[in-house]
Every structure is written in C-alpha cells, then in structure tokens.
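Incident log, structure service

09:12 report received: a user says their structure output differs between two submissions of the same chain.
09:20 pulled the input from the user's history:
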Amino acid sequence: MKYYKIKEKVRFNEIDAYQVAWHGHYVTWMEIGRNSLAGQFGLDALQLREAGFLGPVIELELKFLRPARFGDELTICTTLCRTQTATLKFMAEIYGADGVRLATGSTTHALTDLSGVLQFQLPNVIAKRIERILEWLESA
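09:34 re-ran on a clean worker, output below:
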C-alpha cells in the first residue's frame, strides 16, 4: 500500500516553551494530510457534506517519537485502511527532512447523515469514492 505525501513547514507559532512543536499541532498536520488525500477523491469534509453526510472523528491515536522544531520541513504520509463498517480510518506518519519518523497516528471517522444519524452501511456514493481511493493506494 502506498501513502499520499504532502509537505509542511513547522511555523514559529507552532513552537512551545520547550522550543519544540506543541503536541496538538501534530493532529492538525494529520488533518492536512487526510483532507488533502480525501479531497482528491471527493471525500474531504466539505465534499462529504455536499453528498449529504458527515464524518466526525470517533477515535484518534497519536504516538510521538521525536520532536519537530521551528523551520523543520515535514512530510506527512497518509493512507486509508479498509474497514468492515461504515467508517473511514486514516493512518498517518510524519517524517522530518532527514527521513526520521517523528510521529505515527490514525483517525477513525463514523459516517452520519446531516442530522447526525449513524449510518450502518456505506451509501453507494461514498462507497464508490472510498473504493477509488483504495484502488489508487493499492496500485503499486
């Protein structure tokens, strides 16, 4: 399986009192990767809404391995996993410019209609978009 990659630079406002990137910004970087990948296939937050659905986060995992610092160029690698339920599970790895992995994580998103009613099966329009992403990711 391949990853979608996007670059981000650590900005000054993302640094904490310890002179490293504040931990909450890693979630933002994961979101940047996730929305960029999903948007290519009609599944970012706005596109989901336009299709009549929402994808609230129901689970977030994040493991910090090394700190990022001001000015570091990050590579955010994002992929989508197959699931057995009406959910979207994105995995992410964040690397520094030297290729060292700084963090790993994932987000799982439930699928609801616009009123917040949980979907137990993927609607056809969403299932097709997910399959397109997975086909792209699984092509070598």
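09:41 both user submissions now match this output. Likely a transient worker issue. Closing.
09:42 reviewer note: The two ends are 7 Å apart (CA to CA). The chain has a mean pLDDT of 96.
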